[in-house]
Amino acid sequence: MSKKSMKNYRENTIITHAGRNPLENHGVVNPPVYHASTITFPTMNAFETRDQPPYEGAQYGRSGTPTQFAFEQAVSALHGAHKSVSYPSGLAAIAATFCTLVKHGDHVLIADTVYGPTRSRVCGVIMKKMGVEVEFYDAQIGAGIKDLLRTNTVLVFMESPGSLTFEVQDVPAITGALEGTGVFSLIDNTWASGYFYKPISHGVDFVIEAATKYTVGHSDAMLGTVTVNTEEHFQMLKGIANTYGYHAGPDDCYLGQRGLRTIGVRLEQHQKNALEVATWLESRDEVARVMYPALPSNPGYEIWKRDFSGASGLFGVEFVEAPKAAVEAMMDGYALFGIGASWGGYESLTQSCYPGKLRTARPWDGKGPTVRYHIGLEDPSDLIDELSAGFDRFNAARK
After folding, report:
1. Residue 383: which of 373, 368, 395 has the closest Cα?
2. Which single residue of 214, 244, 253, 399 could bond 193 by disulfide (Cβ 3.0 to 4.6 Å)?
3. What was the pLDDT predicted at 201?
4. Rounded to whole angstroms, what are the CA distances from 230 to 102, 172, 184, 378?
5. Which secondary-structure segment (H or E) carries 113?
């Protein structure tokens, strides 16, 4: 189906059909995997005009094959956007977008609550080497972002909810404040992954997602996407992606498009399970606060309820003050919760985190240890039983 026809359908129909064309593939339901470096052409003229239809895009393996294009088309349709570019990881998508837009002497504004490698690697290494001034802003600033703009400001980067502590940004207020300034708006939308939140409809220029997470959904591929709503922005991205040699592998794109077909049913279940577990955690004496936008007690609940259609399975927990040994005793005994980075797969995960070491615009006010949980597709009652046993170990180690 074409992107135009997709706009006539609802979300779950779009993710089932977008990017597929069985008639072009001998009736095969899923777009096949094309492994390619060289692309050949029937005539010299076809080769020399390969940037035009019908060869547009498929010029060389690095530029993409029908596998990548099918995946990108499906992602774009989910967002209701113009086009997407795929990358070998979420971090690659972030780095490439920054490098597309900035130059030496520019100034960029970055939410204080962003993903750690965005802060330390993209901002702390790449932007520093390029001579770009990075300023971190309070994620709750809203329309006040306009007061931070300078004549050399080129972009504002958001992540909503924020990494580790899940602050919800007022994205429409920020994009509204940027209107007419020429400053680009970017957002890391991995938490909602295009299904529960569509930043393009809220005025965002570049929507970046680690498709590694919920899009793939099975913890077995690295993939990133950037989605835009104009041909100009697409050409900017694609040009730099080709210049840097970024290439999302066809097997990973195949896994991405396969995962996308079930993102709706998976995220609905992740949300159901996470809400049950998060609500239970709020009732525990060992818990100081649960940082999950879908909870009415969360400071960002009203904005989340206004802008999002749901919540994923990822949230943070601040425990009451306790020694590190108590947290280790609790987490080391988990059987269902794996201890590790990443998230978005079918399995539950957890990791310790230290937001106080990262924040500069607004100091972290937490006093107790902080742990991030990803609630998977297991039975939530089994997860709660495991967490309850973990609290027994936690309390024993506190004595």
Report:
1. 373
2. 214
3. 97
4. 19, 19, 13, 40
5. none
Distance CA(78)–CA(260), nearest Å, equals: 9
Residue 148 tokens read as 């931070």
Contact in structure between 215 and 256 (CB atoms under 8 Å) = yes
Distance CA 385, CA 399 (A): 22
Identity at 188, one-letter amino acid code: D
The pLDDT value recorded for residue 167 is 97
Element (H, E) at 207: strand 206-209
pTM, full prediction: 0.94
164 and 353 Cβ atoms separated by less than 8 Å: yes
List, in order of start, the domains of the chain with CATH numbers.
3-260 (3.40.640.10), 263-398 (3.90.1150.10)
**Is the previous residue joined to 54 through a cis bond, with omega within 30 degrees of 0?**
yes
What is the three-class DSSP state of 283? coil
- pLDDT, residue 2, reads 46
Q: Which residues contact 228 (CB under 8 A, 6 or more apart)?
A: 81, 82, 83, 84, 200, 205, 206, 207, 234, 237
Which positions are annotated as active-site residues?
62, 115, 188, 213
- Mean pLDDT in runs of 10 for the chain (399 residues)? 66 87 84 88 86 69 88 96 97 98 98 96 97 98 98 98 97 98 98 97 98 97 98 96 93 96 97 98 98 97 98 98 97 97 96 93 94 98 98 95
Handedness of CA 24, 26, 30, 36 (dihedral sign): negative
